[in-house]
Amino acid sequence: QVQLVESGGGLVQAGGSLRLSCAASGSIFSPNVMGWYRQAPGKQRELVATMSSSGSSNYQDTVKGRFTILRDNAKNTVYLQMNSLEPEDTAVYYCNYKYWGVFKFYEYWGQGTQVTVSS
Prior knowledge:
Layout (H helix, E strand, L loop, with lengths): L1 E6 L2 E4 L4 E9 L5 E8 L6 E7 L4 E3 L7 E6 L4 E6 L8 E10 L4 E5 L3 E6 L1
Parallel strand pairs: 2-11
Antiparallel strand pairs: 1-3, 3-8, 4-5, 4-9, 5-6, 7-8, 9-10, 9-11
């Protein structure tokens, strides 16, 4: 089992910044992928950014150049630095952990943290 605890959400004005953190604990194995997804009201959950334990990152096109994903493997923690926030970024942000074992795929989610961007 893996537990993911998120923090850092909140209310910010358009153009502002927020930094999300997600600390993983429990049975952490490598290589793995940790990242962030978001879900706005009435919409499907979508990928925001992910980073592998080796440092390879992937971003949704709409956040490229504004958001940066960072990892501290020693602390099993992933961060999402969000700059130039837009009202369209308003959503619940979820931390995600993926690990491909020899016989099984493991995936865990955090409880979510609300990000609200006012115009």
